[in-house]
Amino acid sequence: METPPGWTLEPPPAASAPVPAADPFGKPKRSWIREKLSALGAAIIALAAKLKAVLLLLPKIKLLATAGTALVSIAAYATIWGWQFAVGLVVLLFVHEMGHVVALRRHGLKASAPMFVPFMGAVIWARSLGDDALTEARVGLAGPIFGAVAAAAVAVLGFATHTELLQALGYFGFFLNLFNLIPVVPLDGGRAMAAMAPWMWFAGFGGLVLLEFIEPNPVLLIICVLSGYSLYQRWHSRKAPTAAQTAYYKVSPRNRMLVGATYIGLSIALAIGMHFTYLHRTL
Predict the structure, then answer these.
(1) What's the CA gap between 56 and 49, in Å, rounded?
(2) Between 151 and 56, the higher pLDDT residue
């Protein structure tokens, strides 16, 4: 059987699926907002990772800051007294400041690591010295107590080994801690007076000013300025006390006597320590 021209007995080819047009960029486009949000999320994650790393390193940073300021102070003191005396002096200052730190933490208060300031000693920072003057006094007296014990240990070791350097360090340690008991804020003695007899701030400030006139000293002048400013602030607040301020300075007679006995006894012990170490050095 003949087929007409142009006809065939073979079945027509199957229709093939349409081929999608090629994406000239290789993949579908993402929206601009989604791209920005993704970038922002990645940045936040990276920042959080860095903050976590900083928090983990924070204790080490504090330690490095303490060590760094200690080395600077040692270098400064060494120019006058030599490196051995300078090292011993910084150690005594560190023990003194750790007394404050221990007392603060015992009362549930946070304190910074000790930082050293050449020719000004060492300092710590705390958001609060307690909710009452009694706690402030305990924190203030803890430094000279720790410092007195450290100075006594150095002096005894100096006598036992006949080492004049250690005896001189003991004398200087006794002197520094006794000086800190001058009854004016921000010295430790002023902290004790907050619970014992706040009016003694005026006597302490007057003594500092008189000492500056007798023996002019730039370090003492700085302490006088700081003390005068602190005295003005604290006494001005006591002239028109709020309920919280009245409660702050309310100390029982028994605790007032304990603070006074500790202050006087510590002052006498430091003076005796200075006396004996000084006599030995002058022989």
Answers:
(1) 11
(2) 151
CA 231 – CA 134 distance, rounded (Å): 18
Burial category of 228 from C-beta neighbours within 10 Å (exposed 0-12, middle 13-18, buried 19 and up): middle
For Cα atoms 232, 233, 235, give the angle at the middle one, nearest 5 degrees.
65
Q: CA 234 to CA 230: how far, in whole Å? A: 6
CA–CA separation, 129 and 101 (whole Å): 11
Distance CA 278, CA 151 (A): 13
CB 199 within 8 A of CB 211: no
In the structure encoding, which two tokens stand for residue 42, read together?
Answer: 């990645």
Q: Rounded to an integer, what distance in angstroms lies between the CA atom of residue 227 and that of residue 119? A: 17
Strands 115-117 and 121-123: antiparallel
CA 141, CA 99: separation in Å to the nearest integer? 8
Burial of 276 (0-12, 13-18, 19+ CB in 10 A): middle
Q: At 175, which amino acid appears?
A: F
In the chain, what are the domain boundaries? 37-282
Structure tokens that stand for 240 in this block: 């028109």
pLDDT digits 0-9 by tens, 239-279: 666 767 778 888 899 999 999 999 999 999 999 999 999 86
Dist CA 212 CA 224 (whole Å): 8
Residues 159-195: pLDDT tens digits? 999 999 999 999 999 999 999 999 998 899 999 999 9
Residue length, the chain?
283
162: its two tokens: 């006949």
pTM: 0.74
Cis peptide before 186 (omega within 30 of 0): yes
